[in-house]
Amino acid sequence: xxxxxxxxxxSVALVVYTYFGYGLVVWLLIRLxxxxxxxxxxxxxxxxxxxxxxxxxxxxxxxAKVENSLDQDYPRERxxxxxVTEGSNDGSDEYLRSHYAGVVDVMGGSERRGKVAAMNxxxxxxxxxxxIFTDANTQLNTGAVRELVKHFRDPEVGAVAGEKRILTxxxxxxxxxxxxxxxxxxxxxxxxxxxxxxIVGAAGELFAVRTNLYEPVETDTILDDFIISLRIAxxxxxxxxxxxxxxxxxxxxxxxxxxxxxxxxxxxxxQSIVRLSYLLNPFRYGVLTFEYVSHxxxxxxxxxxxxxxxxxxxxxxxxxxxTEPSDRGNGWVALLVLQCLFYGAAWAxxxxxxxxxxxxxxxxxxxFTFMNVCALAGLVRYLRGAQSGTWEKVRRADxxxxxxxxxxxxK
Length: 411
Prior knowledge:
- This protein is of the alpha/beta class.
- It is 53% helix and 12% strand.
- The chain has a domain at 49-253: Spore Coat Polysaccharide Biosynthesis Protein SpsA, Chain A, CATH 3.90.550.
- The longest helix has 37 residues, at 287-323.
- It starts with a helix and ends with a helix.
């Protein structure tokens, strides 16, 4: 093998490991050593809990969110609701205070300092031993709080992540359908991570932490949920996973909205890698480092960089095959053809998406390529220092229909 072939083979191996190999390795480890023992959980464990809902300009979602929170299958006197509406100028404060006075607590303020700053401020006033963070635009299953809280009976558990589920219709755009497929696969990996040791990163739509373990987060942090949960894991606690506690969310309204969200998340991923660099030490953190590097660092910082290297190296080897024909050269040509077909399918999926057309066969190549292109754009954004900790609301698929609800709520 020449050096170009070595580069290509190593790059392909890294990509395959990132998206398929890691899951296979974790699955095999679980089968060989068995699942992590689960301590007996007490169904009569009912500690006081605060459901904290950051809600910047989310008036259209508030009626449904409050009612959904009140419908939780948990002792009402032990479940406290806190809506953090800091910086909102859409009437959220007035609506909550007038319609739910004495039912929910509202932490407002005219200055928009960002989600993380608002969360830090809110945590200074929360007295319950457990706090559950959830987004205003999500709906929780009625047993979500109960299912999350039961894990804290185990003193080794410092945080618990719920499951994020994407609601897609049959006629949904490719981005939305692709997002749903991605989260189904991601949920499976989280389940295996938890069975092996701990999950590496909670989804902000629904996760719970012990209040005394919360550390104030830098206000410019993009992935606050990820940083909070990983820092707790780094202190020796487990981050459990509870798929029976889930948050339902609609996909992004359009491919541009999804692109904006993905690039921001990717920039936050690189920011997190820098701030959590101490977790890269396997001699100190062991299995946590293995899971963190394989599941997150490779996904954000390795595979996206390998893909263009694979394509360019493959082009060079295919050119060599025309000047120096060989069986191995024919193999490189075949691989290049397959790559071109794959990216061609992704491009076709993108064009169809822009026309609001949908073809299931293009979901995987489209979303895979889209996700990795956004990761590269996120790296550029991070290097430029163009990220901000202030909330950047992305339109969801139902945002347009919710305008009527917003007008009704204002009345």
